[in-house]
Amino acid sequence: MNNIATGDALEHGLETLLLTTKSRSEFSRSLMRVDVPAKIFQSPNLDSYFRYYLEQCTTAVIDTSDQTKTHRQIVNTARLLADPSTDASYISNLLERATTSDEENDEVYWTFFAVRVLTMIDVGGLRQGIRLGLSPNIWSEGTIRDFVKAKFPAEKVLFSNGKMDPLFNACNIDSIASIRVIWTNNIADHLILEDGDRSIKVFSHVSFLELHRDCDIFPPGFVDETIRTLALLLPSNDKETRIWFYKEQKRCSNQSSIDSKAIDCRPVNSINRQFQKYNFWHDRLVMLNEAFNDPNPKSMRQLWLDRRRPAEWYSFWYAIFLIVGLTLFFGLVGSIEGGLQVYKAYHPSSSQGS
What keywords sit in the KW lines (predicted)? Predict the structure, then answer.
């Protein structure tokens, strides 16, 4: 990949990078049709999104025979798909070719590429049949808004009228419940449990979501609710969570899947801990909460960290410390008695010696 230094950045091919504030601002404004303040691109917040875009471009350059695509063409394709006035027959014919052909042609390939860049939903896949998400996201009919709406229905199948405990956060999910957090660039995988409930996918791209607040691709309320789920998992006012998050950033420093702004979301209040306040992510939150509360800690460290039931925690550790204390006490007494006996054996009294 080559760096972009001069000229119209969007007219360059995908093998070039969008590094400057101007080029990133122009790309985002054109892609999402929103007025993005230039200062946003002077901070590292959107670095994760543009690393994701770079990964998509790198894969596409290798994967397709078309080496002439420019950033401008990708933007134009995305805008065409997002424009409500686009001829419905054009999209339906395109999707029909995508679902009936054994192999994607170039037009279909770049259409799905533009959708991935616009929505961060894995759709289409690569020529070799590789998919980036846990399950295929198939767009076979309707507009792009219909596809996104169907992917994220505002419905609640599972019942729960309670709320999530303040201890319900990513740090504790990892350290107490031993549910490993896997950062994902595919928003469709957000909050999905896998590996027998031993790992959870988390989509952290807050900066990307905030750009979509003024863009109507996602259903109304979806963006704010998704950001609230990140505020639940990554409370900015919790010191241990911040330390854990920075370690995760360091561990994944070569990946694009962690947005540094995710740890700065406004903490949720008690009302927004209620399950009923969530429509799009309700069922996944319920399942994650059940997985968090269900397993018993397997190590002493987990037992020490697990304070979800304070009364049981204090009773357990009081008993442990009492047993350990008594064991040490009687062990010390026994050692002293044994020492005295040894001393007497080697130093008999004068009365015994006469």
Answer: Membrane, Transmembrane, Transmembrane helix
